[in-house]
Write a structure and sequence with these properties.
mainly beta, 10 strands, 8-stranded antiparallel barrel, 193 residues, Hypothetical Protein Pfu-838710-001
Length: 193
């Protein structure tokens, strides 16, 4: 993730492997609360999208545009829409008042969560405990340097949902967890061939 000041009109600093900033992230469901005792910090977040999942899924737009408040920090984020662990990501710091005004313009619902930062075996995990319409959903994410990077799976980690679009925040804004049917709440991991 790259944070940039819009006022300075800076260009993203590319990572060493690509001319554009990339996010390599994997998502997992969480099976129990064992992570709570390891949490080092909690960040309260509220976010919304200036486009909806339908415009992205149809191909009319090829990226999600997110506004997020993290405690007293605000950011605008543009992320390419691709299934899998790797996506282009651009992120810019914006004034908090601008973020509040933009959140009022967002389509779909607001995604609210508490992000718990958990270190485990040399990696930083972001455990998102969703609130509001997505209460009851807990997802752990890990950012990696490459898709091949190995990491230790904590015992509280469940199945991987990286390739399941309904777990993406953009989808949760339009179709929150509280409206999922039994099949959606009982996910199955993609089968290995």
């Amino acid at each position: 993730m790259r944070s940039l000041a819009l006022a300075n009109h800076q260009s993203p600093i590319p990572n060493h492997h690509s001319p554009v900033p990339l996010e390599i992230e994997r998502k997992f469901l969480v099976t129990h609360d064992g992570w709570r005792s390891q949490a080092q910090r909690v960040i309260v977040m509220a976010q919304g999208y200036l486009n909806d999942v339908g415009s992205v899924d149809s191909g009319r737009m090829r990226a999600s545009v997110r506004v997020r408040l993290e405690d007293d920090v605000a950011r605008l984020n543009i992320k390419s829409r691709e299934l899998g662990a790797t996506r282009q990501e651009f992120e810019y710091a914006i004034p908090v008042e601008d973020a509040r005004a933009l959140l009022a313009l967002c389509v779909g619902g607001r995604v609210e969560k508490r992000r718990h930062l958990v270190r485990h075996a040399g990696h930083l995990w972001e455990v998102d405990e969703f609130l509001g319409d997505n209460a009851g959903l807990v997802v752990a994410e890990i950012e990696l340097g490459s898709e091949a990077e190995r990491f230790v799976h904590p015992d509280w980690l469940g199945i991987e949902v990286t390739a399941l679009p309904r777990y993406y925040n953009l989808a949760l804004a339009s179709h929150p967890y509280s409206r999922w049917n039994a099949d959606e709440r009982g996910p199955t991991a993609p089968k290995d061939n």
